[in-house]
Write a structure and sequence with these properties.
This protein is of the alpha/beta class. It has six helices and 14 strands.
Length: 269
Amino acid sequence: MTKIAVVQMRAATDKKNNLKKILRYISQAARRDAKLCTFPEFMMCYTSSSQSAIDLVNTAEKINGEFVSSISEEAKKNSIQVIGTLYEKSPKPNRVYDTSFLIGKNGKVITTYRKIHLYDALGFKESSKLYPGSSIVKPVKTSAGKMGMMICYDLRFPEMSRMLASSGSEILVVPSAWVKGKMKEEHWITINKTRAIENGCYVISPDQVGNIYCGRSLVVDPYGKILLDMKKKEGIGVVDISLDEVKQVRQKLPLLQNRRTDVYTNLKI
């Protein structure tokens, strides 16, 4: 069994205040014997709809900037792995990447993933401020297991989680900022459970709470059981996961093995 910490936070517009809170959560997770501490999307800062694209560009940093470097130092100090997010500077004028990163317990950045599916839906248009990534990042080995990285809206595209699972992921970590709205919590819970069931893997989805977001950070096991639901409470939750569970579920319900990739193709009409 491996302990995983999930942070549900309400990010403020001030990234320095958010960073202080983030560093405290990392040390709390380590004190509770977690091997991995996971954070939601947009943890760097809350950006209101009135904030301009230029303001967001001025807030953004490079991956080796002060924000991630401070988190790396805290991870090293506490000997814990951390998954977090930042607004990362991009080559596109007036646009930034929405980037997640994995830091090892030695404080080194192991991998980064830039969100590829931008939330241009249900009255929102992330592409007016964000620049999409161009690739799915291959799964990486962590102390918790082989991990695939996604961000929020990516959950709605089953092709992505299936690619990550068929490439070896035992855990999908999905930092999110799921916007409140009609049926949105139902969608959130259903999709998280479905991605876990259809891929026989854990899904760990830390979410923003407050502002325009719904909370309900989740950990779902490979058979679809919700192990953690943080409701509307800001704070940290810790849950045990076991790779034996992934192995057993995939043996009993061999969905990845039973695929018919030889006949999956777009149909000509």
